[in-house]
Amino acid sequence: MENNIKQILEKDRLNKEDLITLLGTNEERAKLIYARAAEVKQQMVGNKVYFRGLVEYSNICTKNCYYCGVRSGNKKVNRYTLHEEEVLAAARFAYAHNYASMVIQSGELSSPAFVKRIGKLLTKIKKISNGELGITLSMGEQTEETYRYWRECGAHRYLLRIEASSPELYRKLHPNDKIHNYEQRIEALHLLKKTGYQVGTGVMIGLPFQRLEHLADDLIFFRDLDIDMAGMGPYIEHEDTPLYQYKDQLISKRERFTLSMKMVALLRIIMNDINIAATTAMQTLDPVGREKAIKVGANVIMPNLTPVSYRQNYLLYEDKPCIDEEASDCIECLDNRIRMYGGEVGYGEWGDSKHYYKRTGKTEVNQKE
Ligand code: SAH
Ligand code: SF4
């Protein structure tokens, strides 16, 4: 078996069957996958880890995804939207501490007022940072015009997880209506490419009804879509959501974590030059989960810059960590932890996806476009 794993890992192109075998290895043999991924990472993207200061802009959402704690149907949530000045303060903090980039994430809204508000925010963030802060958005499905408008205002990366690349599984995780449509989500990913973003997607790992075969297909989906960035993490149940009823059918949290580690490592192996995030959900299941993910392939981390008083209202899942730590408490601690796991923080560098530049033939820029 061990030789078999080694042989598979030496192949130039892994197919679905190979990926299923690798995803199914025990923890001992998984180390071979991690070692290979670490090697590929070192060769292709080096050991730098890039910070993206995360701002959770609003938990108001028109959608009702079955897994998510802030779904519109959850009446227990106190809804908030950050004030412009609060986002700008986070941007100033990121800029002052050399983070080089930020991510603005939000529940999905698409009213003209919302679209405009975000556009204005982007322009202001660019202005206060001399055009130097890179901005990633994660605001769900929008029209082509909106994506284009936000791109022109200064956002240059966008995260939109497909959540589950199998249409059949996707349908089990979302209401069956017009605003939760699988084809539309795929279309949105294409629109993001068309409008010039570095495009990131991802899935949740360890979902109810999900099998190894689905995860192998997810990896192949990323490769076929030729994505620039990925953010994946374990599914973590939330009491006030419909999927909670399947909690007893889930694989254990430890297994979900290991499977997430394998997904990160395998993605690094099959798409060697993309950016991969070490996600907060991995930290939720293991106190050094993000650092472990960095060791096996991830190269981006998103320290939370949301003002502390709002954080307990942005609980997409249970036990979310760091909800009572000020951003300034995190920097040194995170920097040390990353070093301990062989990484080095790329302060002041955008650390854009190398894959994006290869894919588009554009010349890599570092800060300011
Ligand atoms: N509304 C936007 C962005 C915010 S949600 C969107 O949906 O694209 C960001 C991500 O949180 C989602 O893509 C989903 O993958 C993740 N998420 C939501 N609920 C989760 C849960 N219970 N466990 C793990 N991840 C979850
Ligand atoms: Fe809204 Fe995103 Fe949560 Fe779905 S996952 S309910 S779109 S915040």
Structure, described:
- The protein is α/β, with parallel strands linked by helices and 369 residues long.
- It has a single domain, classed as Alpha-Beta Barrel (TIM Barrel), CATH 3.20.20.
- The chain is built from 15 helices and eleven strands.
- α5 (112-128) links the parallel β3 (101-106) and β4.
- The longest helix has 18 residues, at 27-44.
- The chain starts with a helix and ends in a 9-residue tail after the last helix.
- Bound molecules: S-adenosyl-L-homocysteine (SAH) and iron/sulfur cluster (SF4).
- Residues 61, 67-68, 105, 107-108, 138, 140, 160-161, 163, 204, 233, 235-236, 238, 281, 316-317 line the site of S-adenosyl-L-homocysteine.
The CATH homologous superfamily name equals Aldolase class I
Strand content: 5-15%
What is the ordering of alpha helices and beta strands? Answer: HHHEEHEHEHEHHEEHEHEHHEHHEH
Present as ligands are: S-adenosyl-L-homocysteine, iron/sulfur cluster
How many structural units, i.e. domains? 1
Mean pLDDT: 95
